[in-house]
Write a structure and sequence with these properties.
Elements: H1 3-37, H2 42-66, H3 77-126
Helix pairs in contact: 1-2, 1-3, 2-3
């Protein structure tokens, strides 16, 4: 079998597997933050969580497929591993960056929700 086909296949299997694992982890653990942000409105939190999951898949898998092409010849197993390490390493960095971006957004939204809740309590006490 052609080395380039082996490289493409391994790249897609590893990239899709990593993306699914990270997405499931973010989906499962992000739900708690969203419940808090949306003041226990589980329906809204789950809806937003699902939309974030779809966006995460579209961005990561879209980028992985977009960068699939290898322009140089891959003649042996060493070159297969070298190409995979560059491509998978970049995908892992992107997944990590998206993870921290999600955390940043969640914490900003949570802080805003806490601030709004404090304002609401103060307004209720003043009335």
């Amino acid at each position: 079998m052609n080395q380039i086909i082996i490289t493409y296949t391994l790249y897609l299997v590893l990239t899709i597997g990593l993306t699914i694992w990270v997405a499931k982890t973010l989906f499962k653990n992000g739900r708690v933050f969203l419940y808090d942000i949306f003041h226990g409105n589980k329906e809204l939190a789950d809806s937003v969580n699902n939309l974030l999951l779809v966006g995460f898949y579209l961005i990561n898998l879209g980028y992985a497929i977009y960068t699939l092409q290898i322009h140089e010849d891959v003649l042996n197993f060493q070159q297969v591993l070298e190409k995979l390490s560059i491509k998978i390493g970049l995908i892992i960095l992107i997944l990590g960056a998206m993870h921290f971006l999600n955390l940043y957004i969640f914490f900003k939204l949570r802080n805003r929700a806490i601030s709004d809740n404090k304002k609401r309590v103060l307004n209720t006490q003043q009335q």
